[in-house]
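Forum: Protein Structure Q&A
Topic: Joint prediction for protein chains with partners

I've read a bunch of threads here and the consensus seems to be that you should model interacting components together rather than docking separate models afterwards. I'd like to see that in practice. Below is the full input, 475 residues plus whatever partners are listed. Could one of the regulars post the assembled result?
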Amino acid sequence: MLLGRVTGTVVASQKEPLMDGLTFLVVRQLGVDNSETGSYVVAVDSVGAGVGEVVMYASGSSARQTTVTRDRPCDAVIMAIVDTWEIDGETVYEK
Amino acid sequence: MLLGRVTGTVVASQKEPLMDGLTFLVVRQLGVDNSETGSYVVAVDSVGAGVGEVVMYASGSSARQTTVTRDRPCDAVIMAIVDTWEIDGETVYEK
Amino acid sequence: MLLGRVTGTVVASQKEPLMDGLTFLVVRQLGVDNSETGSYVVAVDSVGAGVGEVVMYASGSSARQTTVTRDRPCDAVIMAIVDTWEIDGETVYEK
Amino acid sequence: MLLGRVTGTVVASQKEPLMDGLTFLVVRQLGVDNSETGSYVVAVDSVGAGVGEVVMYASGSSARQTTVTRDRPCDAVIMAIVDTWEIDGETVYEK
Amino acid sequence: MLLGRVTGTVVASQKEPLMDGLTFLVVRQLGVDNSETGSYVVAVDSVGAGVGEVVMYASGSSARQTTVTRDRPCDAVIMAIVDTWEIDGETVYEK
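Posted by a regular:
Agreed with the consensus. Here's the joint model:
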């Protein structure tokens, strides 16, 4: 998984019917020091994440292992909202 | 998923029979600011996308989770046409 | 899928028995402008491609969705020989 | 698999229920010379690894092939704690 | 698949039980000109490869399609020892 910050939303009315009802969030990837790396992904939300929140997301086939994404053409899913992370004993981020 | 702009088409008459009848579109990857990143992919279309349109595409095994791509040697599929996306509350792209 | 040019062959007599009889081709990745990107992959041929030809190849689990590669330890397959591709209405490559 | 050093932990109380009870560790990727590469991943622990330890981790669907991660939205798993590795006959790392 | 040279070994006594008995080899990725690219992977050996040998390896779920790696948390496997490869009609490497 990677750490990211939800920074936006994508609206797409014309889509593969299996994606109906899903929420597409733009997630900017974070480094372990909580800085933005410049990469992003559009991930389906499975945990009620909102813009501004720090999350973990899974990619590839693992992104289809949630109730909302199973058997759907989805390659990235937000599967957790991060409370805190520590590096070398120091708190880098706290919600 | 990633955001991209459809910029071209690929024609290939001699191909794995499982790919017969599919449309191959050249998709340039877009950054969250709607600029081109320099990367591209050839994706199968599952939503009737045309050249010039902004789309979302899924990669890897997730690209086989649509009716047209199931069980086929396809690793990228356009699964949505984008209407709009917002970053930090501002509209970056509108169809 | 990505575009590539077949530029060579690999011979390997000592191999996983499931790979017996397959043809291994060195494929240099092409950009959308038909220039070489510097990346390559060794792909199994499923369409009778030869050295010099421009092809499309699929990667990952999708590379196992052809008759010759099914259930084999193969992560890249040539699944089409390209006739032509167009970008922004102009022909970039013609066989 | 890749080599990495466990350098931190992630706490996430609001998550996909399938991830309940799993330990999320921040793993910095190591080069073969035991230097940090700058990349990281958040991996689920399946072997009792702790902060400071050098580990091997598997990514993608292979990360779901352990008892603790099977059928879960997990794309990286620590599947071994490294005792030692050698390059060109010289020991690079010893626990 | 990619080309690589086996340059080392990894020993890990504490590991996911499914990995017991497997050999972990450090493989440096080679470019098509037989130079090292700077990337590496730790791959499970399925063909009796030794340090110094040039090999092909498969990544991702395809790495689980050999007898020794099936259903195990393994994302890279050496599936062939290379005898020779040719680029543009010239032999680049010969065992």
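The radius of gyration of chain C is 14 Å.
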